[in-house]
Every structure is written in C-alpha cells, then in structure tokens.
Amino acid sequence: MIEEKTTKINIPVTGMTCASCVKRVQDALERIDGVTSASVNLATESAAVDLDPEKVPFDALEQAIVAAGYEVPIEESTIGIEGMTCASCVARVEKALKSLDGISEASINLATEDAVIRYKPGHVSEEAIKNAIEQAGYSLSNVQDTTDRDTQRDKDYSTLKFKLIVSALLTVPITVFEMGLMWDNVPLIHSLSHQTWNYIFFVLTTPVLFWGGSRFFAGFWAATKQFTADMNSLVAIGTSAAYFYSATATFFPAVFAAAGETPHVYYDTAAVIITLILLGRLLEARAKGRTSEAIKKLIGLQPKSARVIRNGNEKDIPIAQVQMGDYVIVKPGEKIPVDGIIQTGYSSVDESMITGESIPVEKSAGENVIGGTINNSGSFTYKATKVGKDSVLAQIIKLVQDAQASKAPVQKLVDKVASVFVPIVIIIAIASFVGWYFTGSGDARLTVALLNFVAVLIIACPCALGLATPTAIMVGTGKGAEMGILIKNSEALEKAKAIHTVIFDKTGTITIGKPIVTDFKMLDNSDTENNVLQLTASIENKSEHPLADAVVRFAKEKYGDLIEPDTFDSHTGLGVSGTVAGTEIIVGSPAFLASKSIKLGDAENIAAGLQSQGKTVIYSVINGKIAGVIGIADVIKDNSKNAVHQLQQMGLEIIMLTGDNETTAQAIAHEVGIDDFKSEVMPDQKASIVRSYQDNGKIVSMVGDGINDAPALAQADLGIAIGSGTDIAMEASDITLMKGDLQGVVNAIAISRRTFKTIKQNLFWAFIYNTTGIPLAAFGLLNPMFAAFAMAMSSVSVLSNSLRLKKYKFQ
Question: Model confidence over 500-529: pLDDT tens digits?
Fold first, then answer.
C-alpha cells in the first residue's frame, strides 16, 4: 500500500461572521478530492487544510471558498533583496517573482533594495519566493528590521571602503610605472626590463580585479547562470578582456608575434576601471544612506523605555513591553512613549516632529498625546491606548516606508528600457570590436579594437537609469514626512503634480470646524457687557447645543466664572430660558423671541449686518428686554486665505463645497478669495460633484476632514485628508496632512512638482549620458579609463541631484 503524501497549509478567509459560516467553509473544503481534513478558525479568520499537494491545486481551494460565499484576501509584504546594482537587476527580479503562481504583483525599488509583493497566502510559500530570487542570481536579505539593515549597510560600506583603499594603493603604482615606461629619461624604471615590469603589473592587478572587484564577477556569474546580463556583466567582461589580453601578452607574447601584432599590456586600464567604479559605488552607498534619513529620524523619535504604574509602583520598562491600558507617567523634558489619553496633570507638548507645527500644544485631562512627541513643562499621567505597530508614529513610519518602496508610473518606461539595455550594449561593443579589427590597419588594430570594445562596455551605465526615479521619490516623500505631509505611495506623489482642480470641503478644512463667538453687541446701556455676557453664558452652560458651547467658551475666556442657574428650560430648535441670580434670561432665535412677544427693534438691523457676513445670530434677553446680539460663525483658519491664494498662483482652479446656505457660503468664499463655490451640498452629493468635474476632463483633488468626505476623497484623482479629522477620511485619502491646515496642500503639490522635475532631470542626464557616451566609445573617441570615471560619476550625479530636494525651501 502506497502512503499518501500530505501537507498542511493555512489559508486566510474573509467574510465569516458566525459558526455557520465556519461550518460552510469547512464542508466546502473537505468535499475536495485530496483534502484529508480542514479546520476553520473564526477568530483568526483562517483555514488549516491537510491535503495531497499533487492532487489539490491552490486554485481548487480558493474556488471552493469563493463558491461558499467567502474570499481569500490578497496580502502585501516587503522583503529586502541583496545583490541588485542596476535597473536590469530590478527587471530580472520582478520577472522572477511575477512568474510565481500566487503572486499578483511585484515591485522592486533599487534605492531601498526592497521588493513589495502582493500575494495569496497559502498559494505561494516563503521558500518558493526565496528560490525564485536566488535562481535570478540574488538573495534575500538576512535582516528585515530597518535598524538592523542600517547596521548591515554600515558594515558593507566599511568593507567597500577598505577594498577601495587597497585597490587604489595597488592601482597608483601600476599607472605611474606603466606610464613611466613610455619615458626614456627615467633610469629607475628602465633598470628593469619590460617583461619584468609586466610580471609586476600582473601581480599588482590580479588582487585589484578579483578581490577588489569580486562583487562584479559574482554578479556576472549569477547573471550568466540565468542566461542574462546586467551592469556587473559589462564591468566584468570589459575589465577581464583588458586583463586577459595583457596576461596573454605577458606570458605568451609569441601568440601576437605569430599574428603579426605587437603585444601591449593594459593592466592599468583594468585596475583603474575597477578602482574608479568602486569609488563610484562608495559615493553611491553614502548618498543612498542620506536619501533614507527621514525614516531614520522618525525611528529615532521612538523612546527606548517608559515609566508605568504596575501594582501601584512606578517602574521603568522597555517600550516594547508597554500594553494598552497601562498608566504611563511623563515628566518635563521627556519623550512621550506611546499614544494615549491624559488622566491627570497638565503640560504643553512639542508635536512638531509629527505634525510640523512649531508651536507647542497645551494638553490637559481627556486630551490625546502622541508617542514620540516631547513633553515640555508639566508632568502628567496618561492611559496608553495605542502601542507598537498601532501607534501613530509606527503607522507614519510604515506609511513613509511603503511610499518610498512603491514604484511611480513613470518608472515603468525606465524598466522597459532597462530590460533590453545591457544586451544591446554588448551587441554594440562586439560590433565596435569587429568593425575596428577588420577595418583597421597596422599592427595595433587588435589593441585599438579591444580598447574601444572595453570603452563601450564600461561607459554604459544602467545604474543611473535605475536610480533616477526611486531616489527622488525617497527624498520627496521623506521631505513631506518631515513637514507633516504623509504621502501614501509614489503614484499619489505623481498625481499631485498633474492636478487641475482642487475642491475644498468648508467645515474643518477651510474653517476651524467649530462655531465661535465673533461679535457681541450690547443694546441695553443700563447694564455692563460683563454682566450681560456672564448671565447669558450661565444659562447657556446648561445647554448641549454647539452654539451654546461657543457662547460659554467665549464668556469663560473673557470674564471667567459663571453662575449656577436657579431654573433652566430648553426649547428644542428655539433656545433656552431660565433665571440666574433672580434675573429672568432668554437666549435664542428671532422665532423664540416672537413666541414670547418680544420685539426685535434696533437689534434687527444689527442682526441683518451680521447675517450678511454669513454669521448665525442669537439674542440675549434680560428681564424682557433685548440686552445683546451675539454673532457666531465657524471662522476660517489663520492661513486658509494665503494658501488659497498660493494655489491660485500655481494655476489651479479652486472650488468650495458646503452645506451652508447661499449667504454664509458666499461670505466664507469671499473672505478666502474663492470665486466658485457650491452651497447647500448634502454629504452624499460631494462625490458626484467631484465626478462631474472629472467628466469634464479635469484632474481633481478633494480636500476634506470628515466621515462624510470619505466617498469624495475616494472618488477624486487625489484625496487629501486633514489629519485633525477622522481616521475614515485619512484611510480614503492619498495624502494626509498631520498639521491640519491648508498650507500642507500647497506644500504637497509643490513637493510633487519639484520631485518630478528632479526625476525628469535625472532621466534626461541618464539617457543623454548613455546616448552620447556609447557612440563616442564605439567610434574610438573615449579612453576606457575616462569611461570608467564617467560611469562611476553618472550614478553619483543622479543621487546628488535627488538630494538637492532636501535643501529646497518650501513654505
């Protein structure tokens, strides 16, 4: 009897809500021929299936789950890959990953050396992914944690630096003495024969080539095993050609004599090329490290420990051990360890590193604090509500990492070019060699053909092409994060530069989002403003209406304590009434006053003036006489007008949406300088308004902060959520502004435009470098050593140009 081979796989299943769902999925899976057993867990939303892998393909399991009415979700993972050096490497790894059944998408970022893959868990294993990467000639990084990877990169940098120094020390004498042989007036050099010097050059060059340049040969061998080629192939073939040609001339000069050629050696060419390219790699590694400084700064914000109360005692514990519900104590000058809500105490907190807001924020009991921010003056105790990967800082770090690892649409063109670049260069190099060899004359035609062959291979640089886009994206998204602008991915960054129309929700976006008292007009001169306001606010203090809250806040800020009312009545939709310190108080609308037979008189003209400015008016009546008229409005944020003006200066069309009436909407629009607005807009109409502009060919950005903005944010080509708003709005958006004001919209679009201007510059120089350098080399106008220097500097120039973004001054 043959024993069946079984394997257990775990499959995530979404959509299950009850025990009957579990039973339905389990039955569906166990009906498949080849499935031994299936165990479905509702809590983990997964199914553990024992099956015969030769009989049961994953598609059969997925089809059974879908037929039962549920789904197998697609998950996303980021993995580090070692050994990639150019755009051709990127194309090869992507192709290898996409060939795996179960991976729906793979995107490689050369600058971060990361692969972002979307896959179906259970359908493709980690081992299969690892094997695919290794078969492509690369390897999975042993360290995935950002801090550990930085440590590993520092070690790699030190190793590279050591190899460069040793190679340079060996290359200098090779170059000096080989040039000295051309001069007759250097007795020291000519005291040894040419043949002896050739042996010395061979000994000095060999470690430079095969030890210093080992990374190029390792990459060349890995690519060759896959019947492909990359940048390493060009360097390895070019330097090997010069080295083995010289070695043949050194040890077997008769070969050249038999062919009628004069033997020459080019050890200096091979050694100088390796040394210069190592120099380029060192400068490139250093510049790459600077492109990820934003992430390092964010990670550096995380405190190492927290002071918590456990069993009634204060205890310092590592940050990783803090749990939700812990009570955390923070003293002046300390970093706040995790997110939470203040229970006792008062302080001001510097949140600039998270929101970009330079002014410290006052915090007291009941208010939220964010982990990684700095407590300035007071001490407080707060309850931890979000820890670990759920904290605001961890989510920001994850968002920035994902954005930097994502691939912009413009990169797709570069990838197509890179996929055929190296093979074409090799063909051109061979054609150049053949052309020069068979059309040349004299005994140096082989030498000339060889040098031009090497020059073509070395001058070609797919590295610059591969780094042009991702390095600029990394710096741009990092710059945004430093300014409190969180960009979800590089596609969102690319969209921002093409926006035609920006649609703003009014409440909480252009305005502060809550009513405040803007005007308090006295009518009864027999009383003081202080007394009228105190009495009015005292009766309003019992109401839960937002307008009443605005009056109370205004009175407390201006005059302090209120008086407890003797009696209180609330009249829904009209106002409030009661007595305070024996005085009869009525506060409400004109309709309320009319129901009490109170005539408006002069107060009506005052109210009309306030209403023309888009303000809501309520009246304060004391002992039957109107004593004051109060104007209340949701005022615009301090910099809304300036931000709108800057956007208009950038050539953008600005629209405002609001549920307010025409008069209020017009007043707000006029105040901030917006000509086009739509009033009395219902929440469910916002998305259709966005769509109407899109139907007219406009690329639209929607800016909002509330739950009712989420559909419009999702509908827009670019959704921008104000960070002071709701989590739902931020999830539906492409860009989140942590600071909560409109200057972030201006800066987000400016960052996008500047970043893609930099990308265009990078691509222009990368393409122009190759399109001019390769023909020059093919036609014999470029020395291989100069080609090596130019090749090394091309990548460095692209990186340096991208780093200029860090110094660009935004508003």
Answer: 999 998 888 888 878 888 888 888 665 677
